[in-house]
Amino acid sequence: MPDLSYVRSEMLPERAPPASQVGIVGWARANLFNGIGNSILTVLSLVFLWYVLAAILPWVFAPTWSKGSLNECREVFAADGGHGAACWGVIRERWVQLMFGFYPEAERWRPVLAFGLLFVALIPVLFNMISRRMNWVLLLVVLGLAGVYLGGVLGIIVGLALLGAAAFVGFKAFTTSKEDRAAEIASGVKRLPNPLFFSALYPFIAPWLLWGGTIWMPVGAALGFVISVLAYRSLLPFVGNLAGLIIAVVAALVWWLLLTAPFAGGLHTIIPIGLEPVESRDFGGFMLSITIGVVAIACSLPIGIVLALGRQSDLLIVKALCVGFIEFIRGVPLITLLFVASTLLNIFMPPGTNFDIILRVLIMVTLFAAAYMAEVVRGGLAALPKGQYEAADALGLDYWKAQRLIIMPQALKISIPGIVSTFIGVFKDTTLVSIIGLLDPLGLTNAIRADQNWNGIVWELYGFIALMFFIFCFLMSRYSMYLERRLRTDHR
Amino acid sequence: MSSITLETHVDRSKMAVSDHIAIEIRNMNKWYGAFHVLRDIDLTVYEGERIVIAGPSGSGKSTLIRCINRLEEHQEGQIIVDGTELTSDLKNVDKVRSEVGMVFQHFNLFPHLTILENCTLAPIWVRKTPRKEAEEIAMHFLEKVKIPEQAHKFPGMLSGGQQQRVAIARSLCMKPRIMLFDEPTSALDPEMIKEVLETMVELAEEGMTMLCVTHEMGFAKEVANRVIFMDAGQIVEQNEPNEFFNNPQNERTKLFLSQIL
Question: Which of A5, A127, A216, B196 could form a disulfide with A267 if both were Cys (CB 3.0 to 4.6 A apart)?
Fold first, then answer.
């Protein structure tokens, strides 16, 4: 009979892993040369990569930036031995057009400013690490630069003043420590307003900058929300939650559709402040893509959430409406919806109404994206354990509070990859508007090729447009990864 | 099922049952579709009672306590909690839920919030307690369940026993008058069961009204003032613990006890 008993007398200490498992050597062994088959594949891949790059890079790095036409480029190639290469002169000559379309030259500062302000407005929404004061510094810098650029005595004075204020606030933020600032706030020094305040105003500022017209139009549009909230608050004690909500929406719609235009027109005759109006048909290029993309992205998420909740609702009619909408929109190609927007919709409108073409496209693209978003969000909702709903219920949270505080934060977190995929898809789908005659970058390529100097140029234009789209989409993708990391709370 | 012996001596000095009614269930019936899960339940719970509900799986014991805060709807009869009848009126339901704490088998902590935020969420949003005060209350109860140092961690970083104690603290932050426990220790390792049971004993010692679905018969013997045995959706037998364990009357109860003890 062998002796089976054993007693350990001391516990073993921790040891470092063997040297071949760590560092660059360990990484390469594990990932590149893990066995004979993998080593061969690694070498083959490197050779393949070499051939591809050797073919593409000389084409890309051609000394044609300064050339004024395709023929001039061809002369360069002939002198160089006849190898074809890229003719980048077209981008140098036409990139402004690819950015702005036919937007009037004197007014191009407006889309640029709107784009700059977009970042200022997005930062507090997207990131929570940048301090309140730094965000205001950014806003002041953007506005100050715009003032200096516009020039004139007034512009330069106001611009310099804004830049000075930015420098002052920035310097103070930079030199006071966190503890000192906390003490200052505790002793009654007023904090700057929350930068989200500007983010909320941005949806009214940007369209005004882009389309111009009287300033009372965006003011009127914003008033619609104020009226809606006031109606809801004042009626809530008398009617139910749902009825209050419906009345609030109706009040806002009545205000926007019937009263905003006379309100803005009337005030404009008294106090005429405004920008030169720009027609929708002059919009084009990446400015158009970004406008449609940003609006569709920003609106589709909340609409999608509402649709996803409606689809799960116990209220039969709400549920049927949501399911019908989602399934119909998802069952129809976006192109079809765009054709409806560009042609059919006019038939249903009373004669003489001028329903802006970009607005029509915006609505269609947003609805299309919202239907997909609803399904993505529904996936996130379905992935939540039932216990989360029960725990929220058991604590006495009502439906909306439970959704807002417990369910949605988790469901949206789960759906981040799907949501961002939808965003990226929508942004790329904006190129489809070229089919109904809007001059997005793809639509402009035809206009550029119609120029005799550039007749026959293809790769350079599409390559440039592809690169621009790639940059935007890649940034969105990286942001989603950052967000997933930031929101990860399980095993830190 | 093994039962954990509680080492602490249970102090029964404050465990007085008053003659105020906390929960009254009259002739309650519930169906899942065509399946009759709860049949003619009649139960009166007095303030300060510690009731343990036992029974085989599928006997309806979890469903019964889930009806008390209307996580499940009953179809017939009446449930009156602290003077409020549970009907389809959502206001009454929310009122009852904010008075009745519940602890679940799988804890159901909110994984996206820290421990402290888990505990302050309902006081802030339902009771409208100012944040600072809610945090003080939360820390008080986290100290009571002996994990104040975990307040700023996330639930996923805690052990099962710690999570369940957080779940108890989270319920207590609403200052409930009644606590429901739905198999609070069934998902835990033996070492962790004890720490959760000790927390529950402390709660009982302070006079909390408790309804507890559990298989921990040691806890039932030491703490409960009444044990209810359910089978096939009905209350088969109920008695004070000594009589229940030593002198069961119904054949079904005898069989059940012979299998688990």
Answer: A216
Can you give the residue range of the structural domain that contains A73? Answer: 56-87
Give the per-residue pLDDT at B7.
Answer: 55
Nearest to B94 among A387, A398, A492 (CB): A398
Residue keyed to tokens 């018969």: B217
Ordered DSSP codes for A439-452:
B-HHHHHHHHHTSG
| Average pLDDT of every residue of chain B | 88
Lookup: tokens for A341: 């927007």
Which residues in chain A have Cβ-Cβ distances shorter than 8 Å to B100? 394
Query: Are A318 and A391 found together in one domain?
Result: yes
Q: Are residues A114 and A187 in the same domain?
A: yes
Token readout for A78 is: 């002939």
Write the pLDDT tens digit of every residue in A387-405.
Answer: 999 999 999 898 889 999 9
pTM: 0.85
Chain A residues close to B97, C-beta within 8 Å: 393-396
Instruction: Count CB neighbours of A203 within 10 A.
Output: 17
For chain A, list residues with pLDDT below 70.
Answer: 82, 129-130, 352-353, 490-492
Tokens encoding A106? 């004197």
Interval B54-104: pLDDT, tens: 988 888 999 999 999 999 999 999 999 988 888 888 888 888 998 899 999
Closest CA relative to residue B48, chosen from B23, B83, B76: B23
A308 and A418 co-located in one domain:
yes
Beta-carbon separation of B97 and A394 below 8 A: yes
B228: nearest Cα among B62, B60, B63, B53: B53
Enclosing H/E stretch for B257: helix B251-260
Distance of residue B110 Cα from the nearest chain A Cα, in angstroms:
7
- Residue at a domain's end among A258, A275, A292: A275
